[in-house]
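Here's what a typical entry looks like (Sulfur relay protein DsrC):
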Amino acid sequence: MAKLSDLIIGHPDVTSFAELEKLVQHLGASGEMFMEFDLKPDYRDTPRKWEWALESAFTRGLDYE
């Protein structure tokens, strides 16, 4: 199971929610089955419904675009 916190820590070059969404899309497309949203991303452009947005990106993978 992938954790959002590990993804954020492992990619310090990501500086926006939009970039994080791309990472989550790639993770979903790579075959990862589950993702735990264990913390709220602290980016200026993080939307109010960030969990829904990341869940959609993970579930749909690269087809999300």
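DSSP finds three helices and two strands in the chain.

More examples are in the samples folder.
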